[in-house]
Specification:
Layout: E1 16-20, H1 21-31, H2 38-44, E2 51-55, H3 56-67, H4 79-88, H5 98-109, H6 121-129, H7 135-145, H8 155-174
Antiparallel strand pairs: 1-2
């Protein structure tokens, strides 16, 4: 079974598109911010065919990235890299798009995902503890992995984690 080049999602025959390998390598080198995780893994990957399979959401993201219509930054980070960086250090980088979080968490949890080997050890441990596929579940798993520490290396992380925990506690009281 084919997997999406950018996120590793297993592709069915209906949800598959193909993109030229040279265009994807140009996207990685010139349009995306390099990271030591998925970006580095994909940059080193040798093309097997002339075209690589992509899922429809990644095709749409690639199109927006290629045309420069992503509003967040000059050079965007790959969506899977953004999720990994967010899992390791929440609040340091802008949180992933809520629509994409569920899809990306399900994709990275798939056993046959070729991008699993690009995960750092911390992200792998946090991923195993995620119960849901949303931002509060990721932060709760991060909190458990770091032993519910009161000490934060980053002020951004401290503010973000405390706000998510506070909002999830408030939602729990309403039930």
């Amino acid at each position: 079974m084919d997997c999406c080049f950018l996120c590793g999602t297993s592709l069915s025959t209906r949800r598959r598109r193909y993109q030229c390998t040279s265009q994807l390598q140009t996207l990685l080198k010139k349009k995306c911010m390099p990271t030591p995780f998925v970006h580095a893994h994909l940059s080193l990957r040798q093309p097997v065919d002339e075209k690589e399979p992509l899922c429809v959401p990644c095709v749409n993201w690639k199109r927006r990235c290629w045309n420069g219509t992503l509003k967040r930054q000059d050079k965007p980070v790959l969506q899977m890299d953004q999720l990994i960086i967010f899992m390791v250090n929440p609040g340091r980088m802008q949180e992933p798009d809520h629509r994409c979080v569920q899809r990306l968490v399900l994709a990275i949890k798939q056993p046959g995902n070729p991008l699993r080997m690009a995960l750092p050890i911390q992200a792998e441990s946090i991923l195993m503890g995620i119960e849901g596929e949303d931002i509060p579940s990721i932060v709760a798993s991060w909190w458990k992995y770091n032993a519910s520490t009161e000490f934060f290396a980053s002020g951004h992380t401290a503010r973000f984690v405390r706000s998510v925990i506070k909002s999830s506690e408030a939602e729990g009281e309403d039930d």
